[in-house]
Design a protein that fits this description.
Blueprint: E1 4-6, E2 11-13, H1 14-19, H2 21-64, H3 66-73, H4 83-87, E3 94-102, E4 109-117, H5 120-127, H6 134-139, E5 144-149, H7 160-166, E6 170-175, H8 190-205, E7 212-217, H9 219-230, E8 239-243, H10 249-253, H11 268-278, H12 285-289, E9 296-301, H13 310-319, H14 326-330, E10 333-337, H15 354-358
Parallel strand pairs: 5-6, 5-7, 7-8, 8-9, 9-10
Antiparallel strand pairs: 1-2, 3-4, 4-6
Helix pairs in contact: 2-11, 8-9
Keywords: Membrane, Transmembrane, Transmembrane helix
Transmembrane segments: 37-62
Protein name: Serine aminopeptidase S33 domain-containing protein
């Protein structure tokens, strides 16, 4: 019998075909191993490059980039900048202002966007009176006035639901820092922003005879404290309300969810903390609180995942050591909200007892 057979292309000897089986099986196995090793090397290489970019490259860029540092501290991504948006907001019965402030160079004037939101019962009167005089009612009113400092990553429109509750008791004055909302841009440094805030307070003080309170949230709590500390004898401020305040920027960097994952790096201090301090980003609330002459109310939720509540505890302890009258110390309070309520960093105003503590 013929020991040869035909395939589709050429004559093959059965014995030769049988002898080639091992080599046919061996070649794909070797190729698979080579491919596997190559893929592993590529993945490892990409992981190393990713690590170097995220944990070495980015901190180094941050160290030498003032613009990047400003973006981290004064976050403004996705915020409205259109003046029409703020002039025609859905909040009922408010007046839009643009307050002039002189920059630290004493040459440049910036205009900051500001809302005057009427108390609820006055808003009802204003609704039916197109010629209602907002300035006159602010000057002579039975209501106290509350100046609101918003946090970073927000503009004055973000807290409109909070204003709706606050206006049951106050004229609410909400403004945007330079570069936020429809406020004109300027160099975003701590000293510059606080200088603006001092002028906004004086602008308000000249327009009302009513008691003035200041409420600051998160970064706004620090800016509010720094502002009050710069006022002569605190300019007759009636009270300071600090919501989710942090002790200092350096302390906060080790706990903030966007930054804390870098704190284990040996070069974290030299590439992140120290450059911020060098450029004046201190936000040392503990230091400034010593100069506040009025009663302070600290509000903090225990489930706050951005600013840990023990920072308000530390600030409260520092505030009780101030050289002020006994009644001021007695009226300085710390209120911590149970984590089970779920108020977190932004929603303390929703608790029904919040305004009980204020009033």
């Amino acid at each position: 019998m013929n020991n040869h057979r035909y395939n589709d292309y050429y004559l093959v000897n059965d014995e030769d075909f049988a002898n080639d089986d091992d080599s046919v099986e061996l070649m794909p196995t070797k190729r698979r191993k080579v491919k596997r090793v190559f893929c592993i090397l590529v993945v490892v290489g990409l992981l190393v490059l990713g690590f170097l970019a995220a944990f070495v490259g980015l901190p180094l860029v941050f160290k030498f980039s003032l613009a990047l540092q400003q973006s981290l501290i004064f976050t403004r991504f996705g915020l409205q900048t259109n003046a029409t948006y703020y002039g025609n907001f859905r909040l009922p019965e408010y007046k839009n202002h643009y307050v002039p402030v002189i920059d630290v160079d004493n040459k440049t004037t910036l205009k900051l966007g500001l809302w005057h939101i009427l108390p609820l019962d006055l808003a009802e009167i204003s609704f039916y009176n197109e010629s209602y005089d907002f300035d006159k009612v602010l000057k002579h009113s039975n209501y106290s006035v509350l100046l609101y400092f918003h946090g970073t990553g927000e503009d004055r429109s973000q807290s409109w639901q909070k204003y709706q509750l606050l206006r049951s008791f106050f004229h609410v004055i909400a403004f945007d820092y330079r570069g936020y909302g429809d406020s004109q841009p300027g160099e975003m440094l701590e000293n510059n922003v606080v200088n603006d805030c001092v002028q906004v307070y004086k602008w308000l003080q000249n327009r009302t005879e009513s008691p003035i309170y200041i409420w600051g949230h998160s970064l706004g709590a620090n800016l509010a404290t720094s502002t009050v500390a710069r006022l002569d004898q605190n300019a007759n401020l009636t009270g300071l309300i600090l919501e989710a305040a942090f002790t200092s920027l350096t302390d906060e960097l080790y706990f903030h969810p966007y930054v804390k994952y870098l704190k284990w790096l040996p070069w974290f201090w030299d590439t992140v903390v120290k450059p911020l301090q060098h450029n004046g980003f201190l936000f040392d609330t503990t230091k400034h609180i010593e100069m506040v002459q009025c009663p302070i109310l600290f509000l903090h939720a225990k489930d706050d995942e951005i600013v840990p509540y023990f920072m308000s505890q530390a600030l409260y302890t520092a505030s009780k050591k101030r050289n002020v009258s006994e009644w001021v110390l007695n009226d300085t309070k710390l209120v911590l909200f149970n984590a089970k309520i779920g108020l977190n960093h932004y929603f303390i105003y929703r608790d029904s007892f919040t305004f009980f503590h204020i009033l």
